């Protein structure tokens, strides 16, 4: 796997209401179980996406520039853009700059989607460089989100946990994914679409699914087809 990322992206967290089935082979990821509360070192830019569809469920996401958020495609299944509200720039749930959506677009090669905000957010920070390589298996990374805790509650502050890179694999469209194993926590209900970053805050993958106990699946941000698709849309 020698694909390279040529753009820079911002690591952010997004939470959204209304999560339905995705294409991954394990259950959609919903919440950090275990782990700890996030500090500001690696998680300075936050997005809270609220989907009003009669119920409250959540997702996470990655801000790729001041007007676009990358998230898991299943988070937006059968969703009207007018039902989604985005908050950017806070570690606290439902806080920060508020934005709506102009629209969103999915990708037919993997469980990913891009949401276009109805107005740019004021970026007062330097973007993190996107990973340009595949990290070694066994490497520890940090996954984060506002998903439900082990007690089944939505946390008021962003949660983060350590996960370990396991195997790499490709889906039927040859898009590279990675499985990550539980460290001091694991992604679960509400964490789909969230970034998995290294110690410097560089995002290496985006969570798309988890089984609430031992393993989660993510799409690799070092996949050149994914990166080219993002560039072609924003």
From TrEMBL:
<comment type="similarity">
    <text>Belongs to the peptidase S1 family.</text>
</comment>
<protein>
    <recommendedName>
        <fullName>Peptidase S1 domain-containing protein</fullName>
    </recommendedName>
</protein>
<keyword id="KW-0732">Signal</keyword>
<feature type="signal peptide">
    <location>
        <begin position="1"/>
        <end position="31"/>
    </location>
</feature>
<dbReference type="InterPro" id="IPR009003">
    <property type="entry name" value="Peptidase_S1_PA"/>
</dbReference>
<dbReference type="GO" id="GO:0006508">
    <property type="term" value="P:proteolysis"/>
</dbReference>
<keyword id="KW-1015">Disulfide bond</keyword>
<dbReference type="Pfam" id="PF00089">
    <property type="entry name" value="Trypsin"/>
</dbReference>
<dbReference type="InterPro" id="IPR001254">
    <property type="entry name" value="Trypsin_dom"/>
</dbReference>
<dbReference type="InterPro" id="IPR018114">
    <property type="entry name" value="TRYPSIN_HIS"/>
</dbReference>
<dbReference type="GO" id="GO:0004252">
    <property type="term" value="F:serine-type endopeptidase activity"/>
</dbReference>
<dbReference type="InterPro" id="IPR050430">
    <property type="entry name" value="Peptidase_S1"/>
</dbReference>
<dbReference type="InterPro" id="IPR001314">
    <property type="entry name" value="Peptidase_S1A"/>
</dbReference>
<feature type="domain" description="Peptidase S1">
    <location>
        <begin position="32"/>
        <end position="234"/>
    </location>
</feature>
<dbReference type="InterPro" id="IPR043504">
    <property type="entry name" value="Peptidase_S1_PA_chymotrypsin"/>
</dbReference>
């Amino acid at each position: 796997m020698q694909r390279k990322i040529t753009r820079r992206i911002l690591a952010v967290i997004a939470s959204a209401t209304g999560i339905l089935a995705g294409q991954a082979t394990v259950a959609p990821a919903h919440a950090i179980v275990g782990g700890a509360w996030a500090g500001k070192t690696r998680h300075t830019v936050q997005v809270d996406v609220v989907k009003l569809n009669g119920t409250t469920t959540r997702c996470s996401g990655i801000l790729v520039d001041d007007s676009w958020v990358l998230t898991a495609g299943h988070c937006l299944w059968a969703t009207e853009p007018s039902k989604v509200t985005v908050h950017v720039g806070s570690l606290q749930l439902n806080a920060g700059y508020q934005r709506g959506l102009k629209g969103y677009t999915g990708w037919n090669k993997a469980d990913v989607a891009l949401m276009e905000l109805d107005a740019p957010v004021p970026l007062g920070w330097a973007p993190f460089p996107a990973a340009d390589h595949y990290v070694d298996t066994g490497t520890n990374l940090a996954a984060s989100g506002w998903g439900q805790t082990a007690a089944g509650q939505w946390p008021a502050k962003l949660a983060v946990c350590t996960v370990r890179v396991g195997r790499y694999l490709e889906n039927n469209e040859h898009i590279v994914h990675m499985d990550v194993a539980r460290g001091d926590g694991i992604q679960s209900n509400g964490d789909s679409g969230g970034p998995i970053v290294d110690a410097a805050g560089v995002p290496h993958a985006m969570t798309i699914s988890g089984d609430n106990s031992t393993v989660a699946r993510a799409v690799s941000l070092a996949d050149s087809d994914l990166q080219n698709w993002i560039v072609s849309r924003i």
